[in-house]
Amino acid sequence: MNNVLEVNRVSKYFGDFKALNDVSVSIPKGSIFGLLGPNGAGKTTLIRIVNQITIPDSGTVILDGEALSQKHIRDIGYLPEERGLYKSMKVGEQAVYLAQLKGLSKEEAKKRLKYWFERLEIGDWWGKKIQELSKGMAQKIQFIVTVLHEPKLLIFDEPFSGFDPINANLIKDEILRLRENGATVIFSTHRMESVEELCDDIALIHKSNKILDGKLIDVKRQYKINTYEVGIKANNQSVLEKELHERFQVSKANFKTLEDELKLNIKLQQHEKPNELLNYLIARGDVSHFVELIPSVNDIFIQAVNSN
Amino acid sequence: MNHLPLIIKREYLTKVKNKSFIIMTFLSPLIFITLIAVVAYLSEMNSDKVRVISVLDESGLIKNIFENTDHTSYNKLEDMSLEDAKILVKEINGYGLLYIGDASEGEIDLKHITFYSEESPSITLISALENKIQTELTLQNRIKEKIDIEKLEASKVTININQESFQGEKTSKVDSVVKLVFGGAAGYLLFMFIIIYGNMIMRSVIEEKTSRIIEVIISSVKPVQLMLGKIIGTSLAGITQFVIWLILVGVLMTVVSLILGIDLAQMQTPQQQMLNQAMANPEANFEVQNIVVAFFNLPLANLIIAFILFFIGGYLLYSSLYAAIGAAVDNETDTQQFLLPIIMPLILAVYIGIFTVIEDPHGTVSTVFSFIPLTSPVVMLMRIPFGVPIWQQALSILILVGSFMFTVWFAAKIYRVGILMYGKKPTYRELIKWIKY
Predict the structure, then answer these.
(1) CA distance B386 to B165
(2) Which residues of A190-227 are buried (b: 16+ CB within 10 A; e: fewer)?
(3) Which residues is B277 bridged to in the sheet?
(4) pTM here?
(5) How far apart are CA A35 and CA A186, in angstroms?
(6) What DSSP character marks residue B374?
(7) Residue range A231-244: average pLDDT?
(8) Partner-chain residue, chosen from A53, A71, A88, that has the shortest CB–CB distance to B219
(9) Residues B37, B262: Cα–Cα separation, whole Å
C-alpha cells in the first residue's frame, strides 16, 4: 500500500448545500500533499471528514489500508485553521491534557513535551497561562500539541499564519524533518509560494469538486504553455521583431539584461521543438537568454479555477 | 478510547481552581450570613425601642387593661379634650394616641375608637390593641348580662380534627406543613441547582467556542463525550460548592449566633408571626415533638431515593439543553432567546409546586405536571411527601429518563454542528436543520 490515505468518492451535504461532491484523493506515504482551493471550496469539510469530526454522506476513507475508525484518532495530528487554547489554563497542563486525549500517558506526554519545549526554546512557558502569551507563542504550542503523539498523518491548515518569518521558517524546517522521520503531511494553504517550495503532490478543490490532482511536477507539465522567454540582440531589432511576430505567437517579456536586447515571450505550436526555435533565433542574432516558462502554482490555481 | 474520565477531571479541576469560583464559594455564605445578621441586629434594635402610646378614654370603661410591657408603655391621659391630647402627644413625640369616645348610655360608640399617629401604625400593634379592647368589652358585656363566666369557660371545647387516609396513615396539620417544607425545599434546591450550574455549563461551552480550541478537542474526542464530560464535571464542581456552602452557612450561623447572642434560626419576620397567630391553637400545634413525629412519618426512604433520581434526571435533562444552547451561539448575549423556553417550564414547575400542590397534591393539574418531563422533577419532588403511588413515580421517572435520552441525542446533534459554526446567530429553523446534518 503506497498511499497512507485514500478518500474514495466522498460526498457531503449540509441541508441543500453541497459541500463535497464525489471527491477522491490519494495521498502517497511520505509525501507533503498540498490541498488547495478558493475559500469555501470544501477543503475544511474534507479535512474534518478525515478527522472524523464530520461524517460523510457517502464514500469511504481508508487510512493505512483500513476503513477510518475511532482508533485512528491517534494516528492523525490536526492543526485546524480556527485554532486556540484554553485561555486560563497553564501551558504545560493543557498540553499534557491534549496529549492525553490523543492517547499518550501522562508521563510520556510530559517527557515528550519537555523535549519539544527545549527544541523550540520555549521551556520557561510551562507554567504560564495562554492569555499571557502572544499569538505567535500560542501557535508554537499548538504546533507542538499537533505533532507530539507522532502521528502517521499530519494535517496542517494554514500552519504559518500568525508566525513571523523567522518562526515560520523554523516551523517549515520542523515539518520537513517530520516528513523525513516518516510522517505524511497534508498541507492546506493559500500561500502558493509555500506550496511551490514544500509540496510533492497537490489537489485542487473548487466549488465542492476536485478539479485537479497529481504530482506537482506532472501538474506543471500538464499546464505547460510551451512558451520560451527569449533575449536576442540583432542589428535591426524592429525588423526582427516584426518577422518573429509573423512567424510565432509573441508577446513582450520583462526581465533584466545587460545589453539592450529584444525581450520576448515566444509560444510554440504543439509540434514545434525548442531547438527549432533556438536555431531559428541563432541564425538571426546573438541569443543571450533562452528559458522555458514553467507555470507557477499560482498561475495553475488561477487558470484552473477560472476555467471551471 | 474512552476519554470521559479525563474530560470530567479537567472540567472539574478548571472549575474548582477558577478564582471567581473559589471567591464565590467562600464569599457567598459570608454575605448571606452577614445580611441575616444585619437584619436580625436591626430588628432587635428596633424592638428595643419603647413605644409610648397615650390613651384617652372618655368612656372610662377600659382604662385598666393597658399594662406596660418591654416594648410598649401606655400613658393614660385624663380630663382633656381630644384636640389637646393630640397636641400633647405630638409634643412628647409619642408613637400614637388611642382615643375611646364617650359612653354616655353605658355603651361605647364603637365608631369612636380611633388611633391617631404621625405615621401609619404597625398592623400587629393595631390587632393587639383591638384584641385587648375586644376581650375586655366582651367580658364586661357578659358580666352585665349576668352570664356565668366560669361556666362559659368550662363549656368551651377545643377540637383538633384527626386526619387519616383510607390506608390507615395518620396525618395532621403539622404533618402537612412538614411535608410542604420538605417538598418545597427539594423542588427549590433542584430549581436553583439547574439555574446556577446549567448556566455554568453553557458558559464553559461558549468559552471553548470563542477560544477556538473546540476543533482541536473534537478531532480527539467525540462531541457527545465532550458534552457529557462537561455536564458531569461541572455538576461535581457544583455539588462541591453546594456542600461547602451548607457547611459554611452552618458554621457561620453558629458562630454569629454565639457572638451576637441572636438566635438566627428562630428569627421570624412579622409576616411569620402573624401567620402563627392566624393558625393559633398554640397548645396543640407546632411543638418540636410533633414536628419530629411528623418528620419520621414521612416516607423517608421513598423521599431520598426519589430525590436522588429526580434530581439527577431533571438536572441532566436541563443541563444538556444548556449545553446545546452554548454550542448554538457565539457569545452569552445571544443566549437570551434560547434560554427563555428553558426557564419558562422551570418557573412554571415551581409555581405549580407552590400554589397547586399545596392546595391539592393529587389533583389533575399536579398529577399531569408531575408527568411532563420538563416540570416533573420539581413538581413530583413536591408531591412525594404527600404520598404518591409507586407506579406513578416509576412512570414519571421512566418518562424523564426517556426524554433525557432524547434531549441528549438532540443536544448532541446541535452541539456537534453548533460548536463549529461561527459568526451568525442561528434561528430555531436552522437548529432543526442541523439535526439532519
Answers:
(1) 11
(2) ebbebbeebbebbbbbbebbbebbeebeebbeebeebb
(3) none
(4) 0.75
(5) 7
(6) T
(7) 88
(8) A53
(9) 8
B194-246 confidence digits (pLDDT tens): 888 899 899 888 888 888 888 888 888 888 888 889 989 998 998 899 889 88
Taking the domains of chain A in order of start, what are their residue ranges?
3-221, 226-292
H or E segment to which residue B100 belongs:
strand B96-100
The CATH code belonging to domain A3-221 is: 3.40.50.300
Which value does ipTM take for this structure? 0.80
Closest by CA to B410, choosing from B426, B428, B380, B434, is B434
| Window 365-424 of B, Cβ < 8 Å to A | 420, 422
Q: Which residues contact B120 (CB under 8 A, 6 or more apart)?
A: none
pLDDT score recorded for residue A184? 94
Q: CB distance from B3 to chain A under 8 Å?
A: yes
DSSP state of A129: B
The type of residue at B299 is P
* Phi, psi at B79, each rounded to 5°: 55, 50
C-alpha B163/C-alpha B177 separation (Å) is 14
> Do B219 and A51 count as a contact with CB atoms less than 8 A apart?
yes
Angle of CA points B96, B102, B106, to nearest 5° = 130
Q: Which CATH architecture has domain A226-292?
A: 2-Layer Sandwich (3.30)
CATH of domain B51-145: 3.40.190.10
Q: Measured between CB atoms, does B52 come within 8 Å of chain A?
A: no
- Distance, in Å, from the CA atom of A267 to the CA atom of A143, rounded to the nearest integer, reads 45
Distance CA A257, CA A50 (A): 50
The residues spanned by each domain of chain B are: 51-145, 171-436
Beta pairing, strands A209-215 & A184-188: unpaired
List A32's β-bridge partners, or say none. Answer: A185
Alpha-helix residue ranges (DSSP H) falling in B155-265: 173-210, 214-218, 223-260
Place of cell 398529577: B367
Listed residue (B160, B154, B178) closest to B280, CA to CA: B160
CB contact under 8 A, A15 and B10: no
Name the stretches of chain B with pLDDT < 50.
267-271, 274, 278-286
CB environment B262-289: b (16+ within 10 A), e (fewer): bebeeeeeeeeeeeeeeeeeeeebeeee
Cell triple for B393? 413515580
What span, in angstroms and rounded, lies between the C-alpha atoms of A145 and B213?
A: 12
pLDDT tens figures, A256-274: 888 888 899 998 888 888 9
Cell numbers for B114, please give them. Answer: 380611633
CA separation for the pair B386, A58 (Å, rounded): 56
User: Any CB–CB contact under 8 A between B10 and chain A?
Assistant: yes
Separation between Cα atoms, residue B367 and residue B383, nearest integer Å: 9
Cβ atoms of B235 and B355 closer than 8 Å: no
Residue A76 has, within 13 A of its CA and on its CB side, a CA count of 30
Residues of A in contact with B10 (CB under 8 A): 97
What is the 3-state composition of chain A as percent helix, strand, coil, each rounded to the nearest 5? 40, 30, 30
Angle between the N-to-C axes of helices B390-418 and B428-436, in degrees from 0 to 180, rounded to the nearest 10 = 90
- Whole-number Å distance between alpha carbons of B248 and B25: 9
- Grid coordinates representing A34? 498540498
Cα–Cα distance, B220 to A97 (Å, whole number):
11
Give yes or no for B221 touching A (CB within 8 A): yes
Residue B291 has a CB neighbour count (10 Å cut-off) of 16
- Which of A82, A88, A103 lies at the smallest CB-CB distance from B215? A82
Give the three cell numbers for residue B266: 428562630
Task: Give me the residues of B, 278-317, that contact A with CB < 8 A.
Answer: none
